[in-house]
Amino acid sequence: PPRGERLYEGKAKVVYATSDPGLVRIYFKDDATAFDGRKRGTIGNKGRLNARISAHLFRVVEAAGVPTHLVAVAGEQELLARRVEIIPLEVVVRNVVAGSLARRLGLEPGRVLEEPVVELYYKRDDLGDPLINRAHVRLLGLATPEELDRIEAMALAVNRALRVYLAQRDLILVDFKLEFGRTGDGLLLADEISPDTCRFWDRETGEPLDKDRFRRDLGGVEDAYAEVWRRLEATA
Ligand code: C5P
Question: Which ligand 1 atom is at minimum distance from the Cα of 119?
């Protein structure tokens, strides 16, 4: 298909301009990376599955009142989205101890948190995406205090909506990462919501159905992504 100008290429997605200056096409790649790009591979069908899973979950959070950049599913592995200025913050919400939280604070993986924990990371590959706090956000001029309040409120609203929705599909939402963008008329949830950016555990077995299968060489990566999509699609 004819493509517009390539505006941005990341590890998992490519963003293209369209004939409408307010819209972009986001192409989801099959490429997978982990540990700051030190581990690389491909996951069969990942682009297609992540585009579909993201679109589906964006619709779920929209229904809960959180505006997103999603406009439509545009092709096999593409979404049409509002063009935004991405805020270089990775906003992580956690419900269960896993990953870097377990390592950093010496906590037992699998411990259920009484309250969700929100963390901010500065999205900068050359610095390894460091954990930062509100004062650092101000210092770096990444967002105003008002924007940060809104971002944290939106992140918690996303968590409430997705937790319930996924629990009904026998998936535990352990944690996830969000990115937000600015438009002329306010902040939108942007980027993706997929097994690349979330931890989903099967409620029965506790098995990860997400990128941890790739990070930890557990095998069955494509099947896990397909299983997440199957559980969403079955009840679309
Ligand atoms: O590695 P960590 O435990 O901090 O990851 C928390 C959550 O954020 C996980 O769901 C992970 O997939 C996601 N994440 C991400 N992109 C990053 C870092 C973390 O999607 N650069």
Answer: 4
176 CA distance to ligand 1 centroid (A)? 6
Gap between the Cα atoms of 29 and 232, Å rounded: 21
Q: pTM of the prediction?
A: 0.97
Length of the chain counted residue by residue: 236
Contact 154, 214 (CB under 8 A): no
The atom of ligand 1 lying closest to the CA of 177 is 8
Predicted complex ipTM: 0.98
Q: How many CA atoms lie within 13 A of 223 on its CB side?
A: 6
Check if 26 has its Cβ closer than 6 Å to any atom of ligand 1. Answer: no
Q: What's the 197 CA to ligand 1 centre distance in angstroms?
A: 6
DSSP string, 86-125: E-SEEEEEEEE--HHHHHHHTPPTTPEEEEEEEEEEE--G
| Contact 99 CB / ligand 1 (< 6 Å) | yes
* Angle, CA of 191, 193 and 194, to the nearest 5°: 120
Task: Tell me the pLDDT tens digit for each residue of 131-185.
Answer: 999 999 999 999 999 999 999 999 999 999 999 999 999 999 999 999 999 999 9
Gap between the Cα atoms of 131 and 49, Å rounded: 29
